[in-house]
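Input for the complex:
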Amino acid sequence: MKISDCLKIVMTVSFMAFSLSSFAESVSDSNPPLMEVACRYEMKVTRITKPKSSITNAWFFWRTPNIIQTQDADGDHGEIWERTANGSIQYRKLYHTDKTAVEYMPTDMPTNNMSFDWFKLSGMMSKEELNTLKMIKIKRVLGRSAELRKGEINGQAVEVLWLPNENLSANIIKKDKINRMELRLIEITPLSLAVKQPIAIGDINNYRQIDAADFGDMENDPFVKKLMSAEGHHHH
Amino acid sequence: MQLFKKLNLIATSSILTIGIAHAAEPTPADWFNAGHQTVVNAKHLSRNNGHAKNVILFIGDGMGISTITASRIYDGQTKGGHGEENSLSFEKLPYLALSKTYSVDQQTPDSAPTMTAMVTGVKTIGDSLSVNQYVAHSEKDAKVIDANKLSTILEQAKQHGLSAGIVSTARITHATPAATYAHTANRDWEGDSDKLAGATVPDIASQLVDFNVNGGINVALGGGRTRFIPNTVTDPEYGVAGKRKDGRNLTVDWTTKHTNAHYVWDQAGFDAIDPNTTDHLLGLFEPSHVHYEADRVAHDKSGEPSLTQMTTKAISILKKNDNGYFLMVEGGRIDHAHHSGNAYRALTETQQFAAAVKAAIDATDPEETLIIVTADHSHVFTIGGYPQRGNPILGLTQGVGATKPDLDMLGLPYTTLNYANGTGYTGASNAQPEGSKTFSFPATAAWASGSEGHNPTSFSPATGRPTLDSAKVEDANYLQEAIIPLSSETHAAEDVAIFAGGPKAHLFHGIVEQNVIYHVMADALGFNDEEHSESDKD
Ligand SMILES: [Zn+2]
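Predicted:
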């Protein structure tokens, strides 16, 4: 039970979010728009201290110049980041079965930053982080050119396979004393050709919208009730 | 000798209220004299039996008595004193009662039935806003709502020719402000897109703007913009889409339907408002709730007014009416900070709330204005251990004469402030590892991408307690330990305080049902007094 608990903690923190570990100034306007892609990733988290254990999951990643959407392999949970005209980011967690979006308001951001590093959000590594890592060699991944970079970020050993043409991480390996996390790109296609498409924005905007700050006052709401008890139960 | 004694008493009482660290420690005689002086002052209290021209009802959402005590100490310590001797502005109001907050169906209530009780005089069921207990939860039929709606003090004020205003740090459509002007059996139906399909009862935002008694509401200041803006229009501050599906832009409707009306959404627009030429002001400063006071100035993109500034502006607009006014002011995010398990933000919200009360006291005449300060319900927030006088209220408990923090039976230090339940439980959650939890946790958590606080959906059992130090627990983002792991800290059922000053304030005494607050306000304004109403017409 201890192991699964521990892994669960790591697993439920999506790798997308893991990569968003720091805020930074907005990407400058000089950046060209990023290529629209549809990806499938696999993430494996291994606990390297005893007792050893590991868990793997898969998820989808869709990127357009101003919207990034993810979805778990089971299709029920997702996240969406939208960059608005004035550079603000709207972030929502998506619960597709319940047709509900939970919004995290910029007002309630606990850190003193106005916007995300969109570049990092779009590629899972910031420019600063990439520059910190040492370029080892050029490789090919899924038929694309990739830079293998290695180094240390925030006390973690980090190894990245970076796709310079797509501005996207193909593989990321992060290791500390307890866990080894490996993200691996399984499939990448231009968004327009992808078989599995993201949920349309119009449909998401028709979901029920809840501000996460209101959870404490929604103790009788069936959705909030289910959300707050579901994960607590199924692994015990 | 007599004169000297009197001066001495004044000096003593000011020593006791301004903070002992600023002055010599009081002697036994000082304590005795100050206590005696309080009784002398009480003997000179005279009841004001006159009618109130104005009523201001302040609600600290979730501001239980432990929150008031801790905020008083925090406020005193930020001024350089020990803290315990300090008084928040409203603690100096002369009359006090306790309020029983349960609702018709809840032992521990939410903000909807509690505010309904305060503004209509009638208790109702959970989640219901100013409709009686016979209406089923989430009743869709507007006719049923209409047949069972409860008249509010704000509606009655307008009917009697007074002006009316609402101010909040929450969304202006949130339960507490909404109960003053809206009638619905689901507090969450704030915009049209929040309602169940087929519901004919109007959403709360449209009820605010369509409120038609005697020219409509005069002042509404708070958060909650997206429920007023159609989904075809983007937010002026963040660029996100509005949430209305009916195509209405209620901010435009506000200015077109009212005379001398303005809509503002940022500090500059707010500052530009001239109260002398404005009769209807709608100010919506964030898409949802406005910032915590602790974060407001540093974080806000376009700037937004404090609760004190909103209160002051509201009074200066409302006071132009010679018939008087009713104003409701809510410190709406004391509640949210507690739900997040973050004492620092709850105390700083309360500190700002007290500043807003002081601004209202300063801007009004106690002979003609009844000011009431209360809470809708409490929270499971405790002040424990045996800390010495002046111990930092957010800090580790350190006993009298001790040089190190007190230790528990595991040999570990602990804080004075704790929660009985909530997100500060120290077992690992799905968002943060085992140990102390924090409001911001940018290293690995999903919500580092822009959410507030620690919003766990699961916990694992804790093994023992974390090792704490002063730097960790006095940090603004520290979440105090909670015994029972919950996704959100909860309200509490014990009584809350009612502070009052002004005409008929003395009618608050003893322990009363929460709905008595309405009856005192109605009596003070003369709404229950037919003779008075008749003579008014002459
Ligand atoms: Zn609450």
